[in-house]
Design goal:
The protein contains 17 helices and 20 strands. It is α/β, with parallel strands linked by helices. The protein has 2 domains: about 1-205 and about 365-445, Medium-chain alcohol dehydrogenases, catalytic domain (Quinone Oxidoreductase, Chain A, domain 1), CATH 3.90.180.10; about 220-365, NAD(P)-binding Rossmann-like Domain (Rossmann fold). The strands form 5 sheets. Strands 3, 5, 6, 9, 10, 19 and 20 form a 7-stranded mixed β-sheet that branches. The chain has a 6-stranded parallel β-sheet with strand order 13-12-11-16-17-18, sandwiched between helices. A 3-stranded antiparallel β-sheet has the order 2-1-4. The structure holds NADP nicotinamide-adenine-dinucleotide phosphate. NADP nicotinamide-adenine-dinucleotide phosphate binds next to helix 4, helix 8, helix 9, strand 12 and helix 13.
Length: about 450
């Protein structure tokens, strides 16, 4: 892969050079192996260690199909789905691949005894398959992770409704935590020119998800002046939701779990912050009983900060642990918008607070191509910034995933794939200079 890396780093390889560049028949990626599927049997979620299951090894290059592109990956990032895959929860990743493999001969390529993970990338297009006209070898790109077949009418209003919609690198193979990735060409987006490879690879999945969940009419449709309660406001999703709330004239109430995380969201411009650890909320008295008095104490604190307002929108993803409180504190007629259940997916809430107060719960999942493009445009124009706190080499993907699993990280954790070091890939230094401090905000912690 050295010659591909050299071509990219030289900055002067032409589209023809890329179109003719030799692509080795094997490449290195962060993979899970089918034979490890049972390795955490009997262990609790927190004791399952991604460092034990994630291997970094050589695998064969997949065959390029119609509508697809092979991309030389300069950098990728850890998403929480990398954690789920690597601890084989809530279901084994190989059941996703098996199911996908059944739908077509092209999809069958993904059903292998190994799974190359990763749902983000920045890099350079190497080859495109038949039927791809909008993208050419040599183009610098990022990729969003919605993989769709679009053979059913059901997905043509909103591609996330395609019955065969999957998350690339999570429910499909050949993901971005590797030297080369296989994507559908309709996952490609232009790389933001003012960002390094590792910065450009970090927002994709979470930025697009937060955009649909909070801003899009398919999600909460946030508007100016809305009070938005954001769980995990310095984390992957939350750090983008916070920026969108501030950008969009809303009033974020940021929930974090340490003074350091409070400082980060404060530096982003948030003023209303709750440190859930310092406040010591215990929404559950025991495993099966919630404590409405704690919901009330939480709601009272929110009102103290907002001057009496309840949240118009609650940006939910912790799930079981917080969902009862989230439904309770939302204002009459307000919206709870959820995209995940990190602490457990069997939610419990008091339905009286939902129906009597005419609240709505909206489910949201990733983003369609248009939403991902709109979210990427915010990054490209410097309205929303990456929240990368550190980057690991590909060989240490397991450690990177471990830190996200243990909530030891801030913002996003990046992974260098072909890029030999951090700091490379900026082609618009002027725009960068304008936003340098905001881009580096999560680095200084
Ligand atoms: P992340 O970087 O780990 O951030 C999540 C933050 O939530 C944590 O940093 C933590 O912040 C807070 N949190 C975690 N457990 C909590 C709990 N029990 N109670 C309250 N707060 C808690 O992860 P992420 O990338 O934001 O992803 C969060 C979840 O969304 C994951 O389950 C992920 O799989 C899911 N997700 C879904 C989609 C989708 O398309 N459906 C897309 C992206 C992510 P503090 O400790 O500071 O409070």
């Amino acid at each position: 892969m050295q010659h591909i890396r050299d071509a990219i780093l030289s900055g002067n390889a032409t589209p023809d050079d890329y179109a003719n560049i030799e692509i080795p028949d094997h490449y290195v990626g962060a993979v899970l192996r089918k034979e490890d599927e049972q390795m955490f049997e009997g262990l609790s979620t927190k004791d399952r260690d991604p460092r034990k299951s994630l291997r970094v090894e050589s695998v064969p290059l997949p065959e390029l199909g119609p509508g697809e592109a092979l991309v030389a990956v300069m950098a990728s990032s850890i998403n929480y789905n990398t954690v789920w895959s690597s601890i084989f929860e809530p279901v084994s990743t190989f059941s996703f691949l098996r199911r996908y493999g059944k739908i077509s001969p092209l999809a069958k390529r993904h059903d292998l005894p190994y799974h190359v993970l990763g749902s983000d990338l920045s890099g350079v297009v190497l080859r495109t398959g038949p039927g791809v006209h909008a993208w050419k070898p040599g183009q610098e790109v990022v990729a969003h992770c919605a993989s769709v077949e679009l053979e059913s009418p059901l997905g043509h209003n909103d591609t996330m409704l395609d019955p065969e919609q999957r998350i690339w690198g999570f429910e499909t193979n050949f993901g971005g935590l590797a030297q080369v990735a296989l994507v559908k060409a309709n996952q490609l987006l232009d790389k933001p020119k003012h960002l390094t490879w590792e910065e450009a690879a970090s927002p994709g999945l979470v930025n697009s998800t937060a955009y649909r969940q909070l801003v899009s009419r398919n999600g909460a449709g946030m508007k100016q002046g809305d009070v938005v309660l954001i769980w995990g406001a310095s984390g992957g999703l939350g750090s983008y939701a916070t920026q969108m709330a501030l950008n969009g004239g809303a009033i974020p109430v940021c929930i974090v779990s340490s003074p350091a995380k409070a400082d980060i969201v404060r530096s982003m411009g948030a003023e209303l912050i709750i440190d859930r650890s310092a406040e010591g909320y215990r929404f559950w008295k025991d495993e099966s009983t919630q404590d409405p008095k704690e919901w009330q104490r939480f709601g009272k604190r929110i009102r103290e900060l907002t001057g009496g307002d309840d949240p118009d929108i609650v940006f939910e993803h912790p799930g079981r642990e917080t969902f009862g409180a989230s439904v309770y504190v939302t204002r009459k007629g307000g919206t709870i918008v959820t995209c995940a259940s990190t602490s457990g997916f069997m939610h419990e809430y008091d339905n009286r607070y939902l129906w009597m107060s005419l609240k709505r719960i909206i489910g949201s999942h990733f983003a369609n191509y248009r939403e991902a493009w709109e979210a990427n445009r915010l990054i490209q124009r410097g309205y929303v910034h990456p929240t990368l706190s550190k980057a690991y080499p590909l060989a240490e993907t397991g450690q990177a995933a471990y830190e996200v699993h243990r909530n030891m990280h801030q913002g996003k954790v990046g992974v260098l794939c072909l890029s030999p070091e951090e700091g490379l890939g900026v082609t618009d230094p002027e725009l960068r200079a304008k936003h340098e401090s905001a881009i580096n905000r999560f680095r200084d912690i």
